């Protein structure tokens, strides 16, 4: 497939290109804060950049009329409204976490809602590399939104080169339950991006989560 990459010079951009190269896909359009180049029209565009680039990404999708896969974090409800709007014209797959493990963990969390009552303290901790710009992580916000009960706090740690760890703790008097996911490399995320890229052209227009793609 011929694809475009917004944020191509970043950590995720480079990791996506590496995996897509290995799988025979061709980068034909790329953009970062300083450069924009197109050698052929892309069949899909992938955005792993920064929230401040979001409106520009929407303009590009509108202009090229190609499906979008977006993993950029920091998007708010207003941005999601805009994604819903553009997804009337092209398929869009969005997730704050393209790893399979986190998407399994969201199912476990939903199940926890059946058992956890007001006697539990619930805390979320996310740990990422020192270069991560947003806080808390998009994934921590996604996990918090699944839990029916009040979450005391999201704790954010920025430590060295950690690829991404998320832990949810449920503690009551006398015992604690911990759910933890840890990415060992960016392949945890890029595999999900590749799977989405393979499937997006078979989708009707609309806004999809990565989990919906996984469960098809
Ligand atoms: N959903 C998921 O599974 C995952 C999501 N992420 C998210 O992906 C995003 C990128 O992460 P990461 O690669 O680590 O970050 P980096 O800071 O390494 O890379 C960001 C990239 O975005 C580019 N960029 C900055 N401004 C613009 C702009 N105006 N237009 C286009 N490109 C721009 C940067 O270019 P320049 O160098 O020129 O500034 C750079 O190429 C973050 O939001 C992160 O949270 C990360 C991992 C997994
Ligand atoms: O910036 C990162 O690196 C990551 N960001 C995402 C987030 O904010 O949740 C996903 C992953 O944890 C890695």
Automatic annotation (TrEMBL):
Catalytic reaction list: (S)-2,3,4,5-tetrahydrodipicolinate + NAD(+) + H2O = (2S,4S)-4-hydroxy-2,3,4,5-tetrahydrodipicolinate + NADH + H(+); (S)-2,3,4,5-tetrahydrodipicolinate + NADP(+) + H2O = (2S,4S)-4-hydroxy-2,3,4,5-tetrahydrodipicolinate + NADPH + H(+)
Subcellular location: Cytoplasm
Pathway involvement of the protein, from the record: Amino-acid biosynthesis; L-lysine biosynthesis via DAP pathway; (S)-tetrahydrodipicolinate from L-aspartate: step 4/4
Cited Pfam families: DapB_C, DapB_N
Enzyme Commission number(s) of this protein: 1.17.1.8
UniProt keyword annotation of Amino-acid biosynthesis present: yes
A cellular-component GO term for this protein: cytosol
EC category: oxidoreductase
Record-annotated Dihydrodipicolinate reductase C-terminal domain positions: 101-214
Keyword terms, alphabetized: Amino-acid biosynthesis, Cytoplasm, Diaminopimelate biosynthesis, Lysine biosynthesis, NAD, NADP, Oxidoreductase
Family membership noted in the UniProt record: Belongs to the DapB family.
Protein's UniProt name: 4-hydroxy-tetrahydrodipicolinate reductase
Species of provenance: Geotoga petraea
Lineage, opening ranks: Bacteria, Thermotogati, Thermotogota, Thermotogae, Petrotogales
